[in-house]
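User: I want to check something. If I give you two sequences, will you return the structure for each one separately, not as a complex?

Assistant: Yes, each is folded on its own. Here is the first sequence with its structure:
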Amino acid sequence: MVGSFLNVVIHRLPQMMEREWKAQCAELNGQAAEGKSSQSKSSPPATYNLHTPRSACPHCGHQISAMENIPLISYMFLRGKCKKCGHKISIRYPIVEATTSIITAYAAWHFGFGVAAAAAILFIWAMIALTFIDFDTQLLPDDITLPLLWLGLIFNAYGTFTTLNNAVAGAIAGYLVLWSVYWLFKLATGKEGMGYGDFKLLAAIGAWLGWPMLPLVIMLSSVVGATVGIILIVATSHGRNIPIPFGPYLAGGALIALFWGQQLTQSYLHLLAMP
């Protein structure tokens, strides 16, 4: 059920942001008053948020009924098609639902009953939403990354995953590391290598996991990102000048570090200590 809601967040939040930007631009251009005066009293502005309007087929506008909206099950019974028009439903929806349920269940088993499991589950849901939003739009919304940063500090005020000192240092270091990379790359090439959302995401990850985990997260995300980028260029003729979002790989590295960070770090240090 949460995975189904995350699909709504992934689809609607970028559109909500775009609507807000357009409204702000119109207001700055002095068009707000004109828009209000030309609007009919009988047709109020359409409400568009995470719960209004009801979910509908993007192809024909058919409103999704409750029976058509059961996570995973409805997709299988509908055979991945809209009940009314037969248009294909993206496989992304059941993938997000299944991924959310599997990783959430694993987190509950891994951490056991308690605050750590509840916190980890919130972190996982945020990472899933950010991953797919970044894939679609190359945006990492502040509406998710900034509350996530503060939640990490709040949970670690009680030592949930690391000490508060490590969490604060992790938030600062996470932001500054990618901020420095951004400016070094821009000064060297004149191009922007990543967006500001990546800084904020790594700052949030640092607030949750602490600064000692940041090298592991960066290493894992860089290796996976470089590998996927090379595969896209070689196998799919993906142009080298076409940007590849880095947020999903940061999120993947963070989830690996959340579950197995201590073991991976200890194994790495053990290998370095071997003669």
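And separately, the second sequence with its own structure:
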Amino acid sequence: MPNPSLLTVLAKAFLAGAPAAEQVVARARRTLGKPWRWLRPLAQRYTKAFAGRTRPRHRDVVRFLRRDAGFGRARSKYFQELAVEQWLTESQQMQPVAAAETWDVPTIESVAALADWFRLSPGELEWFADVKGLVNRRKDRPRLAHYHYRVLAKLSGSIRLIEAPKPRLKELQRQILALILDEIPLHSAVHGFRKGRSIKTFIAPHVSQRVVLRMDLRDFFPSISGARIQTFFRTVGYPESVADLLGGICTNAVPRSAWREPALDADPTQLREARVLYSRPHLPQGAPTSPALANLCGYRVDCRLAGLAKSAGAEYTRYADDLAFSGGEAFERCVDRFSTHAAAILREEGFTVHHRKTRIMRQGVRQHLAGLVANQRVNVMRVDFDRLKATLTNCVRRGQDSQNRNAHSNFRSHLDGRVGFVEMINPAKGERLRSLFERIEWP
């Protein structure tokens, strides 16, 4: 058996800098202290094996070396002479994939540099990232946990868990969002959680179409794993140690203590499934980085679905976990088969379709997406408009206290936001509601 430290150190040398074969050979020669003839072919095989891919993990390179037949013959033949002559001490360099080379993200090439970037000590950085899940799962000191939890039961019986990061962790996540994630371009089909886009722009391409297909993803945020987030940061170019810590700060694994909700009226089976799902590292619904990371991790599936839609003569847009496709006669003829292909692509990419919410809506019926109507123009649903109008009218006639049935702490701001939403979608209807809102007497 080869010396384990030799494989470990040689793998680190391969990963330390640019993946070009000549530079890999130079670093390997420095490590082994001798210009072995078999190093160049080995470096070329390594470069070919990982070309065009996300920066590999250290364990992947070790596995490659173990399985490489040429290296196996060399270490058998020169077993007595192979040894580590020089340990490479410099930090690993940024290695972005080709598409990421122009992204204006900060260069962070070591754990120490990442700690400085956050203005933390290395120990504090490890504590906030909690890559091994030791902090957030401590039962003896729950105050050390990084998140507050709120369990919600949906009308469908499924479970939603709100994971709100505590203030200091949220600051770190906002720094990642502003200085890294916001600098990375999104797919053109993405409309949710994106500057300059809205629910209105999400629906606009599907107005007055012959047929509209709506699909919904199940457990969108928790289905995106911590390993996937770490891989994304390595795609950006960060070394494995840095990418793992960035991923740790942006993900969470929920402890069992978070599910102690005695008043929760939920299906026991759904509750058990939710506990298993949320116990794994995932994107927390409540962290400021989660929407951006979900959009970025969905880039590949957006490309595939956009290409599928184009081949069928259809339009495609996505607003978080809501997917919409629409088209004319050609798309109408194949829409059933199309939905099956789209669901297969989503499954291959790690997402699950909520099949009960899949809808094929032809002309002559109400075509609705994300709670809005798309038949002739983007519009609010009549029932929602009438309900809000009745609430405002009753506030004028009977006082606002009579309508605050859900005990909103700031009912005025709540109503103001609902009226503003209608104004954005349909200015004429919004103006009518605004006139009622302004007639309400507030304390």
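Because they were folded independently, the notes below concern the second chain alone. The two ends are 81 Å apart (CA to CA). The mean pLDDT is 90.
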